[in-house]
Design goal:
Structural class: mainly alpha
Low-confidence stretches: none
Strand content: under 5%
Radius of gyration: 11 Å
Shape: globular
Mean pLDDT: 92
Length: 65
């Protein structure tokens, strides 16, 4: 059975932005030149890279606090 992590609050914002903009995680990953796994790790909170997080927020036009 595949184990999945629950998204962090920021991860939920990212997922909602992906849904609103009709973009897949794969497409987002291609746009920011990162792997799909890396984007999923940011969503779940496993990857806390500020640089990657900022790339995602900028690409999805999400204002961070």
């Amino acid at each position: 059975m595949k184990r999945t992590r629950q998204p962090t609050p920021l991860g939920l914002e990212i997922k909602m932005a992906l849904f609103r903009q009709n973009i897949t995680v794969r497409e987002l990953a291609k746009r920011i030149h990162k792997s799909e796994a890396t984007v999923c790790e940011v969503i779940s909170g496993k990857n806390r890279s500020i640089k990657t997080r900022n790339l995602i927020l900028k690409e999805l036009d999400i204002n961070s606090e």
